[in-house]
Specification:
This protein has strands spanning 11-17, 31-33, 37-44, 48-55, 61-68, 70-76, 80-86, 93-99, 107-111, 130-134, 138-143, 149-154, 161-165, 171-176, 180-185, 191-196, 202-207, 219-221, 224-228, 234-240, 245-253, 258-261, 265-270, 273-278, 284-286, 294-299, 303-308, 315-321. By secondary structure, the protein is mainly β.
Length: 323
């Protein structure tokens, strides 16, 4: 039986996670959860990438998938975990899935770049993929090469399709609703664009809000988009799709890498705190624990789950209850 942590402490769910200082891998520390497990991506120069599954009830940690390359996105549905993977040297990518309980084999839905008849590799299948999102039927991701592309594949596999290509996308993250794909583009000092799923029509929603080209996940909740700019003095933003208003939620954040929402609150993970912000009143609560430098987070209806210290072999996954 786990001991209850003190009021200002977090409960450690898993420790000795290896990151080997590879913090330049964009998807490092990617973390998602469902009702039973927390899924976390780590990377070691000796063993490669690993997606761990940590049981919420007993804290048992298993290595769900091992010997991966760089992973730039993980996502869940009711049965599977999906991820984007690429080789850091060649850029050759894969889109894969496995049952969340770890049974069965990894299914590679798309991979590689086939050679053209003239020996070139200008026609590729998956290359430096980034920004995974999913709906009931499809997986979506972005690629910078070939003028930038928004791509999709059925969740069960099949042909990779281009929704749009050649618009110069530099996609950092994305999310979807029933009709559109929403992307954070690093171009133009930060740009949020919607792309119609059916016809590829683009609408620039807002741009010019950033001073860098590094951004967090893109969260969609109650007709609003949420994201952060990952700098030493970063901001958290929201954009209302109903009236096109851009709001700075919070300033002065140290490398904020994650933002999530629930019905009442916004949660932001930054090097200087984990901030719970009431959507209505703006009241803030700092959820950070002592001796903790938050890296990424995910939330459920009771806890925030925190990745700490992704700069060596003593990384941790922790949790803290919020109000």
């Amino acid at each position: 039986m786990n001991e209850e942590p003190e009021a200002n402490e977090c409960e450690v769910l898993s420790s000795n996670l290896s990151f080997d200082d590879n913090v330049n891998i964009q998807g490092l520390g990617a973390i998602v959860n469902d009702a039973s497990n927390v899924f976390l991506y780590t990377f070691s120069s000796t063993s490669g990438g690993v997606i761990h599954a940590v049981n919420k009830s007993n804290n048992q940690t298993i290595d769900l998938i091992t010997s991966l390359g760089a992973v730039n996105g993980i996502a869940l549905d009711g049965t599977h975990i999906y991820w984007l993977e690429y080789d850091v040297d060649s850029g050759e990518g894969k889109v894969s899935r496995i049952l969340k309980d770890g049974t069965g084999n990894v299914e590679i839905l798309a991979e590689g770049f086939p050679s053209m008849p003239d020996g070139t590799q200008s026609a590729y299948n998956v290359f430096f993929p980034n920004g995974l999102a999913l709906d009931d039927n499809f997986l979506y991701w972005g690629e910078e090469v070939g003028g930038g592309a928004i791509r999709k594949i059925a969740k069960t596999g099949g042909a990779v399709e281009d929704i749009d290509r050649g618009a110069g996308f530099k996609i950092m993250s994305m999310t979807v609703d029933d009709n559109n794909i929403y992307i954070i583009d690093a171009n133009e000092n930060g740009k949020i664009t919607s792309i119609n799923k059916d016809n590829g029509v683009q609408t620039v929603l807002t741009n010019g809000f950033a001073s860098s080209q590094a951004f967090s996940n893109l969260e969609l909740d109650d007709n609003k988009l949420y994201w952060t700019e990952i700098t030493n003095n970063g901001n958290a933003y929201s954009f209302d799709l109903s009236d096109n208003s851009l709001i700075i939620i919070k300033t002065g954040l140290t490398t904020p890498r994650s933002i999530f929402t629930n019905t009442l609150n916004i949660f932001i993970a930054a090097g200087n705190g984990i901030f719970q912000i009431n959507k209505t009143t703006g009241a803030e609560t700092d959820l950070v624990c002592s001796n903790l430098v938050p890296f990424t987070i995910t939330i459920d209806d009771r806890f925030v789950y925190i990745v700490d210290n992704p700069t060596g072999t003593n990384g941790q996954l922790l949790k803290k209850e919020y109000q």
